[in-house]
Amino acid sequence: MRKITLTLLLTLTTAFGFTETVVLSTQPAATTDLLKVPEKPELKVSDKKDWFAYLKMVASDSYPEKVKDLVPGFGLGFRVAQKSHALDISINGARGQGWGRGIRNYSWSFPKASYLYYFNPSREQSFYLGGGFAWERLQTKGGTKFLGISSNAVLGLEMFRKAGFRTFLELNVNQPTIARSTTGPFPGPLAEISVGAGF
């Protein structure tokens, strides 16, 4: 009987000791897990997009001596920027009915490549200045025709630069420079005002 009692006591003591050890060893871990505040994932602030494609509406003068004769047009382009600098490549066209004899005025350029410099590249809106070259064809109501390389100067304001949707207002002055073929007097500079939007 003593052997049985002693065996039962040892068994119970061992069992309680083992259980207590398990509870003590697991309780701090469970408490730590319950009190631990889950870490929030770090929010990565993405840099503003450094490129966008755009559509622009253009109003250009049809003949240098008569700025009042405006010709509507449009353009499609792609602009990629790196800090203060940007490269703009586009295709542009304008066509309208001129006054007088009814000769149609038109101009198109493709490709048109311009270098742009932003004065405030880190701000939401920035003025920019630039210039470039284009392969251009034009006809004025005076009968002048030109096909060749035109040089251009551009002054603009780009807005919403840190958003996904951008707009810009731009003044272009194009000067036919090197003619492959020309008819009539060599054309003077042509001015364009455009409003564009892109993503």
Describe the structure in your own words.
- This protein is of the alpha+beta class and about 200 residues long.
- It is about 15% helix and about 55% strand.
- It contains one helix and eight strands.
- An eight-stranded antiparallel barrel has the order 1-2-3-4-5-6-7-8.
- The longest helix has about 35 residues, at about 1-35.
- It is elongated and about 85 Å long.
How much helix is in the residues? 10-25%
CATH class: Mainly Beta
Per CATH, which architecture? Beta Barrel
- From the spread of the alpha carbons, the general shape counts as elongated
> What is the third-level CATH name, the topology?
Porin
Domain module count: 1
How is the topology of this model organized?
Blueprint: H1 2-35, E1 51-63, E2 66-82, E3 85-97, E4 104-118, E5 126-139, E6 145-159, E7 166-183, E8 190-198
Antiparallel strand pairs: 1-2, 1-8, 2-3, 3-4, 4-5, 5-6, 6-7, 7-8
Can I get a quick summary?
It contains 1 helix and 8 strands, in the order H-E-E-E-E-E-E-E-E. The protein is of the alpha+beta class.
Which features does this protein show?
57% strand; Porin; alpha+beta; 1 helix; elongated; 199 residues; eight-stranded antiparallel beta barrel
